[in-house]
TrEMBL record:
Pfam families: ROK. This is ROK family protein. PROSITE patterns: ROK. It comes from Streptomyces kunmingensis. SUPFAM superfamilies: Actin-like ATPase domain (SSF53067). It comes from the Bacteria.
């Protein structure tokens, strides 16, 4: 039997990836282009066109019934537009209508990249089997998404669960979003490195001053590096606990480059979570690393399309 497929797009500041995905989450065809992030909007759209062109000439394309897009944000699911911070040529860019035109009128579902990662982790990763979950990407920024009542909850604009911009320090540093003391301003990779450098940590002979280098120093016992990760863990714990208290999640899944730091992040995070998640209904909250890997954006965009109202009846629903 020939199962229906969905097309998936994962749009970021570095690359635009595309795939044809079946209802088990298997990637059957791929395409990719670098993102011309500093070019004008039509040039960026040209890269999307090129990725879709590769997919539409595949012999599998006639089985495609919907398109899912996970994009760097902000996105506006209700308007079908995207305004990625790291792609200045796209501001309120009508991505959904442009993709729908190229895809021959197929239903198109747009979500933020954190929501896409959440869909992937709930479908095939560490949040599988959990009806109420927060999934997070901790990397250059901090994003996230929610599973509530067993369903992906993107919210009206596709940004629900964006934990990176919960304020956890009322007198903290100004955040580029316009607020102050946001989780992202403390726990993102660049801000972990910034704090370590400000407190006296110095990179090694290779000059690497990234969060990954701070993580290596923390693993080796450098107290300043350890303290920077502990501060990040505390901010994450405060944001996770606030979310759990609000909507009663029972697991927080953390992916992204910073999560690859391992115990220097997760040990203080779990310790801090005990200090913040104190009410009886959140005390059993667990934290786990993400497990869907580098294809999370594509698999999650496909999952979002499979679960969307517009695609129901168009595609098989085994993934729901």
């Amino acid at each position: 039997m020939h199962m229906d497929l969905v097309a998936a797009l994962d749009i970021g500041g570095t690359k635009i990836a595309g795939a044809l995905v079946d209802d088990r989450g298997r990637i059957l065809a791929r395409a990719q282009q670098p993102t011309p992030a500093q070019e004008d909007g039509e040039t960026v759209m040209g890269a999307v066109d090129a990725v879709l062109a590769e997919l539409t000439v595949s012999e599998l394309w006639p089985r495609t019934r919907a398109v899912g897009i996970g994009s760097a944000g902000p996105v506006d699911r209700s308007a079908g537009t995207v305004s990625p911070v790291n792609v200045p040529g796209w501001r309120d860019f009508p991505l959904v209508s442009r993709v729908r035109e190229i895809a021959g009128g197929l239903p198109v579902e747009l979500v933020g990249d954190g929501v896409a990662m959440t869909a992937a982790e709930h479908w095939q990763g560490a949040a599988r089997g959990h009806d109420n979950a927060l999934c997070m990407v901790v990397s250059t920024g901090v994003g996230g998404g929610l599973i509530l009542g067993g369903q992906l909850h993107p919210g009206p604009t596709g940004n629900a669960g964006h934990i990176g911009h919960i304020s956890v320090d009322l007198d903290g540093d100004p955040c580029p979003c316009g607020a102050r003391g946001c989780v992202e301003r403390i726990a993102s990779g660049p801000n972990i490195a910034r704090r370590a450098l400000a407190d006296g940590w110095r990179p090694g002979a290779d000059g690497d001053a990234s969060a990954a280098a701070v993580a290596r120093a923390a693993h080796a016992g450098d107290p300043v590096a350890v303290a920077s990760f502990e501060r990040a863990a505390q901010a994450l714990a405060a944001g996770i606990a606030a979310t759990a208290t609000l909507v009663e999640i029972d697991i927080a899944v953390i992916g992204g480059g910073v999560a690859k730091s391992g115990d220097v992040l997760f040990v203080p995070l779990r310790r801090a979570l005990r200090d913040y998640a104190t009410l009886s209904f959140v005390q059993r909250l667990t934290v786990a690393p993400a497990s869907t890997g580098t294809d999370a954006g594509l698999v999650g965009a496909a999952a979002a399309a499979l679960r969307s109202d517009s695609a129901r009846g168009e595609v098989q629903r085994q993934a729901v």
